[in-house]
Model the fold of this input.
Amino acid sequence: MRQQSDGLEDEAFSIAVRPEPQYVGTARAFAAAMARHFRADEERVQDVKVAISEACTNAIKAHRAISIEEPITLVVRADGTILWYEIADEGGGFDVAGRIAKRPAEGELFEGGIGLMLIRSLFPEAQIEPNPRGGTTVRFPLALESV
Amino acid sequence: MAEIDLLIEPRGEAGSERAVLEVAGDIDLFTAPQLRHAVNELIDAGSRKLVVDLTKVGFLDSTGLGVLVGALKRLRDSGGDLVLAAPQRPVRRVLSVTGLDKVFTIHTDPTESQISGAGVTQVGDATAVRRS
Done:
């Protein structure tokens, strides 16, 4: 049941992450802090850390593969009892023919493939799709315990 | 970058058949190369049974798993093995979700890894060898 004026509606927080390996930890810490701020279960906080780490790792690799410096964006949006995580890059996406940043096909057994598999296993409702910036957006919902 | 994000402490003598690597910190895209380097150095020096003590690892993702799987393949190809000792809850979850808990030899107790097997040269206890 959604409460009126519970203070969670439409609250959004975001950070821009430079596409460098040391900032995977920064993104992870931010994502975990948001989950804890909204009182998510600690086990799920750990799952969020893994999913964010995987999504950012893929995004950073994609940006670096085509040598672009633009940041990756991480947005956390509270919608009632759901906390939405969204990581967007502009690193070449899925369908850019011949681009070296092309994503590994699902199920392929190397790091990028295992990363997507982990996100999907931990958050079965995750959406991984091309975005208008020419990259990929990973979006997944974290259910919060109703207060 | 001045700070050390991952502490890696090998125990035992260089070149010994069996080596223990104590790791502390988060293993991800940034720190995994340090782990890969440490593991390869031990294997190159002749270690065939490598114990990676994960007691103080609070986070591990697919990049870290890639390093461990790579080391496991190298060691098993030459008749050795890689043992994961004392993975904590977040690491155990990643291992089980990926099914890799059935691939690795896992010791829940780090002392089990140190006591069993011959040829271990233990240098002090875990806290004594930590750098800061």
Q: What stands out?
A: The domain at 11-115 of chain B is CATH 3.30.750.24 (Transcription Regulator spoIIAA). Chain B touches chain A at residues 1, 5, 26, 28-30, 59, 61-63, 65-66, 89-90, 93-94, 97-98 (CB under 8 Å). The longest strand of chain B covers residues 49-60. The beta strands of chain B are 6-11, 18-27, 49-60, 81-85, 105-107.
